[in-house]
Amino acid sequence: MPLLHGTPEGVPYVPGRRGTPGALRSVLHSFQLFHQGGALQAEQAGGGALVVVGAGEGAVDELLLDLRHQYRQIEALLGRVEAILDAYETVLTEAPRADHRFRIEHCQMATEAQLDRMQRLGVMASFFAVHTYYWGDRHERLFLGPGRAHRIDPLASALGREIHFALHSDCPVTPVSPLMSVWSAVTRITREGRVLGPEQRVAAADALRAFTLDAAYLAFEDGIKGSLAPGKLADLVVLERDPLDVPPEEIRDIHVSQTLVGGEVVWADGGMTFPSRGRIA
Fold first, then answer.
1. Fewer CB within 10 Å, N- or C-terminus of the chain?
2. 38: which residues sit within 8 A by CB, 6+ positions away?
3. What is the 3-state secondary structure (H, E, C) of 197-253?
4. Nearest to residue 125, comparing CAs of 109, 111, 105?
């Protein structure tokens, strides 16, 4: 999704130093604009998701908006989880909305208390699970220390609270590789081969659901995708082995035999294929 720096016309940005309430006031104002000035129309159009990126622990620095004609999505980058939840709770208190499916992107350092609050508010998460592999060692040694590093991407804690969550790769930050992300969620193995926070590992079935049906649910698209069912999009892959049956350490190495889009095979071993033109190596 393209993002626009600053704020759109009619949404004042309140300048403030990092950590001051000014930026949060601007976020709150923009959330209220979204919530009260078009959310119902967007919901009827099948959209209306509100996404906030919570990667770090600093205050909300800048509001980045992309007001699309159908979806009215709003994203704020680099927001502290607590500040985001404050904003969500303010909006939902002033203008309650059923099935809002608000979420926090990354949600990397959410505490147990913050997850309790997310559960109460019905806020969901999209976790950057492969973060444990690419940066887990550095977080433990340099940035967060062992105790906090072991909690990054707290999938098991979210699952225990029945919080809907998805997984993502944050492409182009890391390659688009769903099986790699599933492997990371299941094993939490770092680049140096250590397990970071084993208590936050989840089962392969839960990780696969987070990349399929629950990911679709977060985007209000579970009626058309995310599972194999009559009437849904026939976009799927055929795997050489079952991720639920192989040793967890081997999930990322499972070979993709075929990719189908709209029920048509568009890739198979040997190259891309097109029904009317045959195979392209």
1. C
2. 72
3. CHHHCCCHHHHHHHCCHHHHHHCCCCCCCCCCCCCCCCCEEEECCCCCCCCHHHHHH
4. 105
Which two three-digit tokens encode residue 48? 């209306």
Q: Which residue has the higher pLDDT, 230 or 65?
A: 230
CA dist., res. 88 & res. 42, Å (int): 18
Closest among 102, 124, 126 to 34, alpha carbons compared = 102
* Cα–Cα distance measured from residue 93 to residue 28, given in angstroms and rounded to the nearest whole number: 12
pTM score: 0.73
The token pair at 87 is 């904003």
- pLDDT tens, residue by residue, 186-222: 999 999 999 999 999 999 999 999 999 999 999 999 9
Q: Please, what's the largest Cα pairwise distance for the chain?
A: 60
Alpha-carbon gap, residue 52 to 198, rounded angstroms: 27
